[in-house]
């Protein structure tokens, strides 16, 4: 289920793609205008896209967007242009429903989920919080560092997240050597990220240069990389995170295309070193996007805004993430998700996870009505939103929301 | 293509499952007796399995084994028993071909690939080689440590592997701070592993106890976790391996079922600490299998046996790997592969990768005719084989073979 309150995110300038169903409509690809969900399978059957060259018949009458996302960009652009024209007019009967009566599903089938760490502020803030050392990881400025997450547990916004159990170092033990115990995480965190959705695949052993990689990016979503910090601290050396992340990752239901984001280009980061050729990005002045991100925490019926950050502060672009992941010979498949890693700014109020906000769990965050949080408590709802450009831009991502449920 | 030389691995006591095609047969599920490939789609159409309760019609007329692997064990056992009876007799015409005229394909569609590090000898040997420190990783004795690999690049035996390019620390640079450069790996290695194939799925948030997890293991294959050690050394801190492994992972084509391995049970490891309840394994005397593993290197037309080790020396079982991966709430899906990590023994001749054999690249291995290797050279062929029990047991895995091709 989804909320009607993001009406202003979905103007004619957006035309996002998702997957929807309702009592009246079988599951199929859809778009959204204001608070109206438009069922694209119905539109295609009515002949709306008949003269779009290269568009497979019945491509929208599918439970995922993968087949459409894999197409060449000009075909996707033509569909978008057609929709922008059409949606100003009356639509065929039975092709629309109000957002409040519709169920939104995972927009793509996810074959691979690779999570990066693209924010210099995040690695500095997190390093300071955990190790009292701001030094970024050794390769940070040379390539976007990343690990593979669990693709099967990427879930759509609204899906509850159960507090995971795992192995944890018991730092309260009176012994000098702290024992490892198994139990529910006591350090549940969110990570405010953006997920890049791979469109047209990159074949194995072909690679792709960052400057050409937009052709392989269908669009972007908000991504919450739920993290159990205590499990992570116990398992991460030397092979990286596994069970501290694999229990669930949430994404927003509407994929905002790069075409919709064209008007919101922003300068990318400056760099001190020369990159490998395949990582050299497009011209710096439009290498990023101006996308405001926000995290709200709903705790005991009060809502507190925890942080505001911006996509343009990332040190690496989606194009560079794709180029790096494909650079040693791996393919990239349609529906693969590449997470940016936590999008943080340099100061309090712009930190994209509680680990940073609480300085590693040492300084509680004060919420509305004096409530405090070090990490998430059962019942807490984390709501992330994203908007391109300024208020009224008409291009937003809606929300990525999830409630933390007690351990089983 | 596959070699006829493993005839003795595939007696009536084995009955492995794979996927095959030929000019005469469309791609479908198959088994192998001696050097004869038996096409199970054809057999099922001929009515062979008609009275096997719960077996879906046409389950073998598929390009992967996933649908069959997901079934309850009693159904799979009944099919195996039926085949053991049937194969002693004449088979329906057109249902068999000699192994030499058949193409073997990936036996399952792999949704997730998680690679563990279950060998205490390997972590000690590798630690000594890289860091001059044998201390296992912090959690090693508490749970089987692991990372997620790239599922889309798991390939079937016989598929060539292209030497990957990646970011590497240039240790030859005259500067004090060694620069990171991008280029072809100069430290290509193999890792001798066994892959556990998930059968009946484990739902999200359900978990499974190790002692019950055999129900979710369809069978096992040989797995070569090709590794670019120099790329790995540059990227691994702090998020673990990514591009140093994601270019390709090879598996043997025939899945040997746990039923076929029943006669080869062997004692598991002794432990000093009490495990979390879900990791407590079945009775120690039959917690493992006696499976001999061997690596041969074919270089310049000479074959040298590089190592022999045994599955029973692993510190963690396949059941424990499944239980750990599902313990924080992740599902396990049919076709997921869980790699054991390098299977090594405690002494030279039993080390499962070149990193260990060459003491971190410092001491070359001497091959037949005086050739030497520190790491793999272009054109080298790595061939891994595995046999349950002693010579003549009749239950083997055949081979997992791959040639290293020059960087593109």
Automatic annotation (TrEMBL), chains A, B:
Active-site feature positions: 122 (proton acceptor)
Protein name per the record: Fumarylacetoacetase
Lineage: Eukaryota, Fungi, Dikarya, Ascomycota, Pezizomycotina
Binding site for Ca(2+): 115, 191, 193, 225
Provenance organism: Penicillium salamii
Enzyme class at the top of the EC tree: hydrolase
InterPro entries membership: Fumarylacetoacetase, Fumarylacetoacetase-like_C, Fumarylacetoacetase_C_sf, Fumarylacetoacetase_N, Fumarylacetoacetase_N_sf
Pfam families, A to Z: FAA_hydrolase (PF01557), FAA_hydrolase_N (PF09298)
Binding site for substrate: 232, 342
Statement: the UniProt record of this protein carries the keyword Ubl conjugation: no
Fumarylacetoacetase N-terminal domain residues: 13-107
Binding site for Mg(2+): 225, 245, 249
GO biological process, one term: L-tyrosine catabolic process
Domain Fumarylacetoacetase-like C-terminal: 113-395
Highest taxon above the source species: Eukaryota
SUPFAM superfamilies per UniProt: FAH, Fumarylacetoacetate hydrolase, FAH, N-terminal domain
EC number(s) given by UniProt: 3.7.1.2
């Amino acid at each position: 289920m989804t909320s009607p309150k993001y009406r202003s995110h979905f103007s004619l300038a957006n035309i996002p793609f998702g997957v929807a169903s309702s009592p009246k409509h079988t599951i199929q690809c859809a778009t959204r205008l204001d608070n109206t969900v438009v069922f694209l399978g119905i539109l295609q059957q009515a002949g709306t896209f008949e003269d779009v060259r290269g568009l497979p018949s019945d491509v929208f009458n599918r439970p995922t967007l993968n087949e459409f996302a894999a197409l060449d960009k000009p075909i996707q652009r033509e569909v978008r242009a057609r929709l922008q024209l059409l949606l100003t007019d009356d639509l065929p009967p039975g092709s629309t429903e109000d957002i409040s009566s519709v169920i939104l599903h995972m927009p793509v089938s996810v074959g691979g989920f690779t999570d990066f760490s693209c924010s210099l502020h995040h690695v500095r803030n997190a390093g300071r919080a955990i190790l009292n050392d701001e030094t970024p990881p050794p390769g940070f400025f040379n390539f976007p560092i990343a690990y593979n997450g669990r693709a099967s547990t990427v879930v759509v916004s609204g899906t509850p997240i159960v507090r995971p159990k795992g192995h944890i170092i018991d730092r309260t033990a009176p012994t000098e050597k702290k024992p490892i115990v198994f139990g529910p995480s006591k350090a549940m965190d969110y990570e405010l990220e953006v997920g890049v959705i791979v469109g047209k695949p990159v074949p194995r052993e072909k690679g792709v240069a960052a400057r050409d990689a937009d052709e392989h990016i269908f669009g972007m979503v908000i991504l919450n990389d739920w993290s159990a910090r205590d499990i992570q601290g116990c398992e991460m050396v030397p092979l990286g995170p596994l069970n501290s992340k694999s229990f669930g990752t949430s994404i927003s239901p509407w994929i905002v295309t790069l075409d919709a984001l064209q008007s919101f280009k922003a300068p990318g980061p400056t760099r001190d070193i020369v990159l490998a050729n395949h990582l050299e990005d497009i011209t710096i002045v439009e290498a990023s996007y101006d996308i405001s991100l926000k995290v709200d925490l709903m705790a005991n019926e009060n809502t507190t805004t925890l942080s505001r950050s911006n996509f343009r502060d990332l040190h690496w672009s989606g194009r560079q993430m794709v180029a790096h992941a494909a650079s040693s010979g791996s393919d990239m498949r349609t529906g693969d998700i590449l997470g940016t890693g936590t999008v943080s700014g340099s100061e309090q109020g712009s930190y994209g996870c509680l680990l940073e906000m609480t300085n590693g769990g040492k300084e509680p965050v004060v919420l509305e009505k004096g409530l405090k949080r070090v990490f998430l408590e059962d019942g807490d709802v984390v709501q992330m939103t994203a908007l391109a450009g300024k208020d009224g831009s008409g291009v937003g991502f809606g929300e990525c929301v999830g409630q933390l449920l007690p351990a089983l």
